[in-house]
Amino acid sequence: MSDLFELALTSKAWPFEEARKLVKRFAKNPPAKGFVLFETGYGPSGLPHIGTFGEVARTAMVRHAFEAMSDIPTKLISFSDDLDGMRKVPNNVPNPEALQEHLQRPLSVVPDPFGKFASFGDHNNAMLRRFLDTFGFEYDFISSSVFYRSGQFDEVLLRCVEKYDEIMAVMLASLREERRATYSIFLPISPTTGRVLYVPMTSVNKADGTITFDDEDGTETTLSVTGGQVKLQWKPDFGARWAALQVDFEMYGKDHSTNTPIYDKICRILGAPAPQHFVYEMFLDENGQKISKSSGNGISIDEWLTYASAESLSYFMYLKPKSAKRLHFDVIPKAVDEYHQQLRAFAGQDLKAQLANPVWHIHRGQPPVSDMVVPFSMLLNLASASSASTKAQMWGFINKYAPDASPETHPGMDQAAGFAVRYFHDFVKPTKVYRLPTDVERTALEDLASRLKAWDGEIDAETLQSMVFSVGKTHEFDPLRAWFGAIYEVLLGAKQGPRFGGFIALYGINETISLIDTALAGNFVK
Prior knowledge:
Elements: H1 3-8, H2 14-25, E1 36-42, H3 50-67, E2 74-80, H4 120-134, E3 140-143, H5 144-149, H6 154-162, H7 164-172, H8 177-180, E4 186-188, E5 203-205, E6 210-214, E7 220-224, E8 230-232, H9 234-245, E9 249-253, H10 260-269, E10 276-280, E11 283-284, H11 301-307, H12 310-318, E12 325-326, H13 332-346, H14 351-356, H15 358-362, H16 376-386, H17 391-401, H18 411-428, H19 439-453, H20 461-474, H21 481-492, H22 500-507, H23 509-520
Parallel strand pairs: 1-2, 1-9, 2-3, 9-10, 11-12
Antiparallel strand pairs: 4-8, 5-6, 6-7
């Protein structure tokens, strides 16, 4: 028994905790299908958002943790419910008014408002797959439309007809009285309008697997439940899909948690064991509202990748999945720096600590070596002080700290320098608010400039930090953090900032003196 296996059995990292439940599930009887199936679901009613990515990233982490403890093969499926009717027009697409006439039609037949794909569902599916491919996930993609129309779902759909009364009993117990009167687990697709219909059934025929209902024009219509002519309501669809695919693990957001018993019961009624689940907390935008595909609030995956690496996003997704998290642009710098802190720590950790380190789960046990010789937060402050517009300007400062580094030898550092410039101009610069110093602060800043002009010591972050502390103590700032607050607000136009000794070492002695002189002259406020 390997050390990795033994430590994985007791690791408190959440992917291992979830994977151990699957190990226990198959301890006596491996799955008859020959592999453990992990599934993630996607509703392509709008452009994929970061929450969608997070679901796949976290599922992949559990999958890898399971593989560290078991020899049973695994598969990951990303399932898109593109046969679902478009219930409302998203507000973040071009020409939304052109989609109004297609309301309630399957997303796989709604025209693509972007004009790039055969349907809106195809467009959003392609977006999702591109994102997942960017991050190197190993997965199989399944379209609900293909799943229904190809006959892959037929056996379970016919079983739904056979077990109609049992499934209806589960569903009706969860519905309000007025909803029960018209509810059916089956949603026929109108042969005349192409819309997904929420109508009661006149009859459900177990003998031939058909349903009868009144079409939109009042015509009594009979359809076979097979071949994509009928789809299931979303709650029955969840459980039926688990049964059809023999899903072993699926995670989903807290908004699904009250439905879990319903999904499980339907899956079991259809003859399959319910999968292991994991419920995660929701992502919130800057206003504390749940992020949504249709409203487009929060951050998109492309937006995160505009300002930071893919790995930093995976790191953010690893953290505390059962706690609600704000997902806005201001979380990016912290995520980047913490990710690289964990990378730097990994090499010196024993195996137990490595298994608890997020980067083990992000990189499937083989994390790279960080080449970030300057933290991202410091890069932002350098960009702020210098108003840098290119990463080449940033390298001028980086090389003061790391003369041997270059874009060729430190590609991650080079990428981060470009990200920092972009982030500064888009988010930091518009919010900078400088102020003039008080008389006490002015005297202290003049003293700091004088000491820098006379500086003949090492250009060392800690030594310079001690000198900056000394200036604050000399001028009797109480508490001392008020001195640093003055530095940030007067020199950088921000409420908080870097360890200033490290900033001086990177930015340069003469450049810092010039920064102080410019601020004391009132030029920033002007």
